[in-house]
Amino acid sequence: MNLALWIVAGLLAAAYLLGGAFKVVTPKERIAAFGHSAQWVEDFGAGGVKAIGALEVLGAIGLILPAVLDTAPVLVPLAALGLVAVMVGAAITRIRRHELTLMLVDLAYLALAALVAWGRLGPESFVH
What we know:
It comes from Actinacidiphila polyblastidii. Keywords: Membrane, Transmembrane, Transmembrane helix. Its main location: membrane. The chain has one domain (2-121). 76% of the residues lie in helices and 0% in strands. The protein is built from five helices and no strands. The chain has helices spanning 2-25, 28-32, 46-69, 75-96, 100-121.
């Protein structure tokens, strides 16, 4: 189980790091030009999109770095819970925009982040 949690956390961290960094450095208008799946940015200001990206980057770092450095590993499940909250917001935005098919992807990310939070808070915590 520990290995599975590391793999899931690593994949999530990579996805959120790339996606979040993209949101931070790319203007809102360019993100919106990526097509239907990126039209959600119309519901937010430029600062809001950058804030969401920053939260994703911080969550990605929090999924891996505290455990790798063995410094405050309790931050790993907290980062995962933070990403769950981000994805709840994403799902709500998708519902409001009637993008139910795209919401399934958001729910998959939410479920994986919840799995990491559950695993690291419970059966596979880093407590020695």
